[in-house]
Amino acid sequence: MIKSSLKGLTTLIMSLFLFSTAYAADPVKVGFVYVGPVGDHGWTYRHDIGRQQVEAALGGMVETSYIESVAYGPEAERVFREMAETHDIVFGTSFGYMEPMLKVAKEFPNVKFEHATGYMQSENLASYGLRLYQARHVQGIIAGMMTKTNKICYVAAYPIPEVIREINTYYLGAKKMNPDVEILITWVNTWYDPVKESQAAEVMMAQGCDMVAQHTDSPAPLQAAEKQGKLGFGQASDQINFAPDAQLTATIDNWGPYYIDKVKAVISGDWESGDYFGHMNEGAVQMAPFTNMPADVEEVAQSMKDAISAGEYFAFTGPLYDNEGNLQLADGEIADDGHLNQMMYYVEGINAKVPN
């Protein structure tokens, strides 16, 4: 019995040794393509934190690399093709990379591709995203309770489903707490341009906004709010150090666990395509501490966060109408992932049109 156990243990140790030795000699090459600079302190910064976590978790079994500030269109297609020549798996971290990745994935069937925030997959192309609208709804709850002017505002990047979805859930949260609230929206048509982002926030504050939210990647809108004594929310990472008197909380994107799991699957040969949508209850969607708010607001915000995390509350529940009077969700109907990932309408009450 003891000899049998020792033999089994020896076999296991040898297998692990051979596995680690093989991959130490021939590490899996992992590429990341970023839409902005790694120093944006927002979206791309958090993706690069995930890349670093892959290296820390898997050590010599992997080699990672990245290319930052890659534009949509022909440039993205070229970068994906070049990466596919030398990498085993490539992560494209922005919605606008979907079509180029689909095209290049067909040309490199032995390479694994992963596309962030999109909704298309193929045999060697997976899609992934985070339910960031969950944290954004909590931000809306806070904004609705704290606005003194009944005007909140949103600095938006591009009119894609992810951004539209978060504008809607932010507004729905604010409206839930304050039926008189209005939302102002400015589209800057960039993910990262601190000057444009700041100017957009300044214009809306001049129109009465006193709660600044954003779906762009620098801390500039939040800093603009601080300069004017207004309040706001960090985007993608905790930006409290940039605006210690203005930040109420921030959405924190936690990509690392997903990246580690998918790279491990490449190493083991178990990688599969699919569509991942990370939830607050698994730590994929996080929030910075609640600050600069009264205790009663914090209590309500925490209660809402807990209910969302527990799966007891869902903002997109019918009856839900768009702002043109069309019924989008029937009474009691909860939006499925397909609906969420292709949402291109404003909800009832938003006095604006979705740009073409």
Account of the 3D structure:
The chain is an alpha/beta fold. It has eleven helices and 14 strands. A six-stranded parallel beta sheet has the order 2-1-3-4-5-11, with helices on both faces. The chain has a six-stranded mixed beta sheet with strand order 7-6-8-9-10-12, sandwiched between helices. Strand 13 and strand 14 form a beta hairpin. Helix 7 crosses helix 8. The radius of gyration is 22 Å and the shape is globular.
Name some characteristics of this structure.
Rossmann fold; six-stranded parallel sheet; disordered N terminus; 356 residues; six-stranded mixed sheet; alpha/beta
Topology:
Layout: H1 2-25, E1 28-33, H2 43-58, E2 62-67, H3 74-86, E3 89-92, H4 98-107, E4 112-116, E5 125-130, H5 132-146, E6 151-156, H6 161-177, E7 182-187, H7 194-206, E8 211-215, H8 220-227, E9 231-234, E10 247-253, H9 256-268, E11 275-278, E12 285-287, H10 295-309, E13 320-321, E14 327-329, H11 337-341
Parallel strand pairs: 1-2, 1-3, 3-4, 4-5, 5-11, 6-7, 6-8, 8-9, 9-10
Antiparallel strand pairs: 10-12, 13-14
CATH superfamily of the largest domain, please?
Response regulator
Oligomer: single chain
How many helix segments?
Answer: 11
Low-confidence stretches: 1-24
Name of the top-level CATH class of the largest domain? Alpha Beta
In the CATH hierarchy, the third-tier topology of the largest domain is known as Rossmann fold
